[in-house]
Amino acid sequence: MPWSSAVPDAIDALVQAFRTSPEFAGVTVWDGPEVSKAVPKEMLSVAFTGDENDSDVDSTAQPEGLGGSPDRETFTIRCAAAVLLGSTKVQDARRRAYELYSAAGAVIARDPRLDGAVMRARLGTHTFKHGQTPSGAQALLVFGIDCDAFTRR
Fold first, then answer.
1. Residue 13 region, left (φ>0) first, then alpha (ψ -120 to 50), else beta?
2. Residue 43 confidence (pLDDT)
3. Is residue 2 one of the residues assigned to a domain?
4. Into how many domains does the chain fold?
5. N or C: which end of the chain has fewer CB within 10 A?
6. How far is CA 57 from the centre of its chain?
7. How many helices (H) and strands (E) in the chain?
8. Torsion from C-alpha of 14, 17, 22, 28, nearest 10 degrees
9. What per-residue confidence (pLDDT) applies to 56?
């Protein structure tokens, strides 16, 4: 079997877990950049932040041992939780964005191996910004999901 990264399997597992979890009922979950004219009120994107200056995944692979075993891979999958309210209550938008972030953490905590795609996944660093738009208060929380895995061979 040729060498391959664990990243695609981890992204697929995250998308599936978020789309089927009760915490994200009513929330639009996107797999990377979606082609859509829809403007969801609540959205979670996996492996896409919307920032063209930011990468969607950062990964490093290092040899693990001397016996030709798979490499150890560490990577961060960047995600974004966005909330757009119909009102100007910025506090509500901020709180809801952090609820979505907490929900992502809860989903990962239930299956930190991401259906066997990685050895361990966990929430990493995050950034937050919010403001007012003509459609109301908006909040954007960009966060990483840090993963430890072995490459496939």
1. alpha
2. 95
3. no
4. 1
5. N
6. 10
7. 2, 6
8. 50
9. 94
